Amino acid sequence: MDNSNQKEPLIINNFNSSLISNIAVLNASEPAVFIKSGYKSYGKYSVLRDLNLNVPTGAIYGLLGPSGCGKTTILRSVVGRVNLDSGLIKVLGKEPGEKGHGVPGVLVGYMPQEIALYNEFTINETLVYFGFLHNMKRENVNRRRDFLVEFLDLPSKTRLVKNLSGGQKRRVSMAIALLQEPKLLILDEPTVGVDPILREKIWSHLIDISKASHTTIIITTHYIEEARKADRVGLIRNGKILAENSPEYLLQTYNESSLENVFLKLCIRDQDTFVPAKASNSLHNPLYKSNINQAEQHLNDEIVQVETKTASRTSLTTRISKSFSKTFRLPKFNNFLGALFKDSILIRRNYGFLIFQFLIPVIQISLFCLCIGREPFDLKFGIVNNETIYNSSEQFGAQMYIDELNNHTFKKQYLNWSEANSLAKKGKLWGFIDLSKDFTRDTIQKYNPLKPENTSIVGSNINVHLDATNQQIALITQARIAEAYQSFLIKFIPFLPFPIDPKLLNSPIVLQEPIYGENNPQFINFMAPGIMATIIFTLTIGMTGLMFVIEKKEGLMDRSWVAGINAVEVLSAHIASKIIIMTVQITLLILISTLVFGVNMKGSIFVSALLLLLQGFCGMSFGLACSSLAKDETEVIQITIGSIFPVMLLSGILWPIEGMPDWLRFITNFSPLTHSAEAIRSVASRGWSLGVTTVWFGTITVIGWSALFNLIALLFFNIDN
Ligand SMILES: Nc1ncnc2c1ncn2[C@@H]1O[C@H](COP(=O)(O)OP(=O)(O)OP(=O)(O)O)[C@@H](O)[C@H]1O
């Protein structure tokens, strides 16, 4: 870049006689903002087309045009929130977002069109938050706050934003933009909802700061006539500048008394014949031309160099790599503190949210332990005892067996065969057993070592007729019926008319002390660790995803981004502020499941808690990634609901992975809960420590997943625009 004429002064506006005293003596070689051949499309819709914009340093520049013509898009590209598809853009000497540049950051004050304020903050807290992001000393923030509250006619600094009127909110929004006395001020419709007296005051302040401290101001307004106070206006239509000059010059040239009429004339001309944007600047005014030409001349070298670069659309990979280079700077402590300050206020002001956050895991784990894994009982079951028909003292065996059937499991109903069959068919019984009229006699014969050959012992059978539609109930029923027979035999043997060693009747299968777990394994011990991981994972997704998407939707995130914060700082503060909430949630989950419901915790409670904490971070990262991809709460909820159930199913939380087809087992490796849930289960049920492969591998995978989700979030927060 040729710097030889950098010190040469340039008076940019010789025509604005009423404002001549307000116009800064500008450095001709350094326009504050220039855009050359800027193109921007949203999908197929082209918003900016060959846009050329030149904002001299220290000038007030009014960007005028109808709704939807691309004004906000231009402002957002100036503050670094929109990447042009192609074209050259320089703001305060560098490309927005370039490493080490203060745009976005302290050099730019941005007032977006939407209110973009934290409703739960007071006016003071709002300014303190942005003070943190601009690394301002607290005395400085207080000094500016007192000035701005007075100047913008704001109510008490302790008033909550949510209790302010629409106009007051817009003025707080403007106070944020003015807070750090930036070099460049970007104001998108700052005077909407402001009364005429205050509007006058705001304009005179803008003129003052542009004059006194060479602040460059770009302003959009719907009140076209108020733009007469600007040093330079750009009339824009359909993403193109129709004319760019001082208001007086445009009025004189087009021989009109109002800018509105000038704009109309230009629009008609634009419709009739295509007039390139630059044509309006060459409207034969030699003085203006000479001033502006100096600035443009200086840019030409640079533009020529970049034109080859910008001739075609910037490729997606270039945009992604740009996004990464913007994102990956060392985190700044002041930004982290600012985000922490914001999060802690939001938590403090939302007691309902806190109670909800603690109540939900308590309810979920309690419901899980009460509803899942418990043995079914009071099952309506029919008993058909044909032996009773004879009512003989030798026919006691059937009743003896029936008495051994667990009264907790079965609600017995004595019926005849056809009644039992009919009730079972109507779904009023889970099944029935029928015992023959010869049950005692045939059972004796069954165990008689000297029984004659061809003796029929069919009558010793217990015939079971089940409604086997419910697998768990059918399995439990079968198991209890078999158990009852074992205990029946022990009682029946003394009544046999021949000696028999009872040990011979024992099952040869002997369950030794299990290596891990109990001989009577509880399903709850299998599921509880995975359920705890799922609860913490889903809670943190919701907590993070919804919070950030709302911030994004309401323009709060954009605003903080423009103030210089990045995703790493936002997320680390979010984690720091939520770690206490997560710790309480995890403590509640572990205490309730183990102490109240007796879920196994054989290994270290701290390792389990650590794994659950990591699962929480993973959920936060996933939530952040969701909010970077989603446009609003509905989309976040859709992504969350759409992903949680498959993740749960694929993670072997509801049913062992060993039951899945081989190809699906492989896929389970790619679910963020699979290995961490197995690790927690191994700690809780087997007592394993972090040194065992399953546990450390689970720990590493959950960290890996968190890193991946964060990467997605970092990328999409930067390129979503
Ligand atoms: N993220 C986006 N995705 C798709 N289209 C968008 C997006 N942002 C803006 N647009 C479209 O781009 C066009 C220009 O929008 P922009 O907000 O820049 O206009 P504007 O001149 O500021 O309008 P207004 O004065 O009403 O604020 C509009 O048609 C708008 O619908």
Automatic annotation (TrEMBL):
<feature type="domain" description="ABC transmembrane type-2">
    <location>
        <begin position="493"/>
        <end position="720"/>
    </location>
</feature>
<dbReference type="InterPro" id="IPR047817">
    <property type="entry name" value="ABC2_TM_bact-type"/>
</dbReference>
<keyword id="KW-1133">Transmembrane helix</keyword>
<dbReference type="GO" id="GO:0016887">
    <property type="term" value="F:ATP hydrolysis activity"/>
</dbReference>
<dbReference type="InterPro" id="IPR013525">
    <property type="entry name" value="ABC2_TM"/>
</dbReference>
<feature type="domain" description="ABC transporter">
    <location>
        <begin position="33"/>
        <end position="263"/>
    </location>
</feature>
<keyword id="KW-0067">ATP-binding</keyword>
<dbReference type="InterPro" id="IPR027417">
    <property type="entry name" value="P-loop_NTPase"/>
</dbReference>
<dbReference type="GO" id="GO:0005524">
    <property type="term" value="F:ATP binding"/>
</dbReference>
<protein>
    <submittedName>
        <fullName>Uncharacterized protein</fullName>
    </submittedName>
</protein>
<dbReference type="GO" id="GO:0043190">
    <property type="term" value="C:ATP-binding cassette (ABC) transporter complex"/>
</dbReference>
<dbReference type="Pfam" id="PF12698">
    <property type="entry name" value="ABC2_membrane_3"/>
</dbReference>
<dbReference type="InterPro" id="IPR003439">
    <property type="entry name" value="ABC_transporter-like_ATP-bd"/>
</dbReference>
<feature type="transmembrane region" description="Helical">
    <location>
        <begin position="579"/>
        <end position="599"/>
    </location>
</feature>
<dbReference type="InterPro" id="IPR003593">
    <property type="entry name" value="AAA+_ATPase"/>
</dbReference>
<dbReference type="InterPro" id="IPR000412">
    <property type="entry name" value="ABC_2_transport"/>
</dbReference>
<dbReference type="Pfam" id="PF00005">
    <property type="entry name" value="ABC_tran"/>
</dbReference>
<dbReference type="GO" id="GO:0140359">
    <property type="term" value="F:ABC-type transporter activity"/>
</dbReference>
<feature type="transmembrane region" description="Helical">
    <location>
        <begin position="526"/>
        <end position="550"/>
    </location>
</feature>
<feature type="transmembrane region" description="Helical">
    <location>
        <begin position="605"/>
        <end position="624"/>
    </location>
</feature>
<feature type="transmembrane region" description="Helical">
    <location>
        <begin position="695"/>
        <end position="717"/>
    </location>
</feature>
<keyword id="KW-0472">Membrane</keyword>
<keyword id="KW-0547">Nucleotide-binding</keyword>
<feature type="transmembrane region" description="Helical">
    <location>
        <begin position="636"/>
        <end position="657"/>
    </location>
</feature>
<dbReference type="InterPro" id="IPR017871">
    <property type="entry name" value="ABC_transporter-like_CS"/>
</dbReference>
<keyword id="KW-0812">Transmembrane</keyword>
